[in-house]
Amino acid sequence: MTTPQLTPLLACPRCDRTPLDETANGYRCAGCKVDFPNVGSIPWLFAEPTAALGEWRARLNFSLRELERRRHELDRALERAGRRAATRKRLEALRAAVEDHAKRIAALLAPLGIDAPGASIETYLALRTRLPPDQGLMTYYGNVHRDWAWGDEENDASIEIVREVLGDAKPGRVLVLGAGAGRLAYDVHRRLAPEVTVVLDFNPLLMLVSERVTRGETVELHEFPLAPRRLEDHAVLRRLAAPEPARPGLLHVLADAHRPPFAKGAFDTVVTPWIVDILPEPFDTLAARINGLLADGGRWISFGSLTFHDADPALRYSLEECLDALGENGFAPVATCERRIPYLASPASRHARLEEVVAWRADKARAAKAPSRHQALPDWIVRGNEPIPLSPAFRSQIVATRVHAFIMSLIDGKRTLKDIAKVLAEQRLMPADEAEAALRTFLATMHDDAQRPTVG
Ligand SMILES: C[S@@+](CC[C@H](N)C(=O)[O-])C[C@H]1O[C@@H](n2cnc3c(N)ncnc32)[C@H](O)[C@@H]1O
Description:
The protein has helices at residues 49-79, 85-108, 121-127, 141-150, 152-166, 183-191, 204-214, 283-293, 319-328, 379-382, 392-410, 417-426, 432-451; strands at residues 21-23, 26-29, 34-39, 42-43, 173-177, 196-201, 219-223, 236-240, 250-254, 267-273, 294-304, 331-343, 353-364. The protein is an alpha/beta fold and 456 residues long. The protein folds into three domains: 60-127; 141-364, Vaccinia Virus protein VP39 (Rossmann fold, 3-Layer(aba) Sandwich), CATH 3.40.50.150; 390-451.
């Protein structure tokens, strides 16, 4: 759904400058000649809209296949004789919930084009996708239940922290970046009276739940707690609902935070809840990007953990380094607040976290140098029409993959580990004394992977 409040805030996420035109089913960049469709009623504003749609479809198909695999696993567990009554009851309830969960997820995500053919699970695993591999459809699934079923204490603590750091500033036009299942954005819109609140995330499951619930619908989905308290807590059907429908001006957008589809200076407040340490780009780049989204005198409100996972240890910033980076990227003054709050403490789970969150309000004092356009992957992957470079890393991966494939081809239900080690030595793939130990490590990893339970 295009809306008159959203359109003036938008700019093309591909060329970064052209305002977007409304069309019958979404938006269009006249400069790039690219259409951005709606998914459900949410604008799909990815720089490569078709590729992104394909990736999220692939993730949906992958999740559905995983659920199917899990149902078969439960069927096999139920078939084994001699189960005690309580075990049978748990397995039967879980099996029914997994089957029902797959139907509900498929129905919820039907706007993605569920009927588009999917590949086999092996193909998805082998190809990976352009999105970060640790960001699947279900990665933050627990947030859905916290936001809209049982999380009053956590949700209230979050909005209170945001209110505290915002102080007496008027929020104006707000962007919530990486909004997840949307509760904080909804609470900002409801309790802090901004003009508009744009809710952005790239995960369609979270955003479709958020959009429906904040419109006043009730959505029912199963929760699969991490450490179930009781037998019946292994799968709990939750009713997800907002306290009341959101007033007009809460606007959902599906897009990548690295290529935000907005005009420069479109917002007076940018809120980043639990996201600055999730995004793979360096913190300084993110700070410069957020600076560019803010109008003069605007502010960045951030809150959540500061646990960076960059491969480069120099980029795993402390709070002090973040504050330096904020100053260098045009923010002053910066006020911080630290609070200890519960995190994902589901009443059905024995597992919960206690987090000392950091929040800041960083006012835009001057414009920062605009960061270069984010490119997650090179064109030979994304566009697919350039030769794939044969890098040294690829060369060694090719050899390793061939060896792995060869080992797997020798697994026939009859050969032993020692038999296969002998073949590897005979084929001169490895010296005999190394082959057995290397094979044991490889098979142990395969075995562990096969044992690992998969979460709904
Ligand atoms: C830790 S969760 C926090 C969710 C929400 N802010 C909350 O507090 O519940 C991180 C969120 O960032 C989103 N995210 C991660 N990378 C993103 C990206 N590149 N663009 C948009 N959203 C992203 C994830 O989908 C997820 O919803």
